Amino acid sequence: APAARRWRDRELGRPLPVHRDAPVRAVLLQYADGATDLVVVADRAALDTTALHAFTARLLGAEQDTALTARTAATSPPAEPGP
Prior knowledge:
Elements: H1 2-13, E1 24-30, E2 36-42, H2 49-59
Antiparallel strand pairs: 1-2
């Protein structure tokens, strides 16, 4: 349905907050006909593709051997200085 597609696209395009406390956002969209879409968005510095897939699988209740790991320090951006 066009309305569902627009809602899903809007969620996919919504930026993550800039602070590091929320590197992942998961939103469950529920439609009037009972269908649902799970939209998961992550900061690439926090979760690489494999970790994002593992995170999403766990949200859906799948048991998976893949560890949830962030990228290595060599590929991650430098941490911002604290207060």
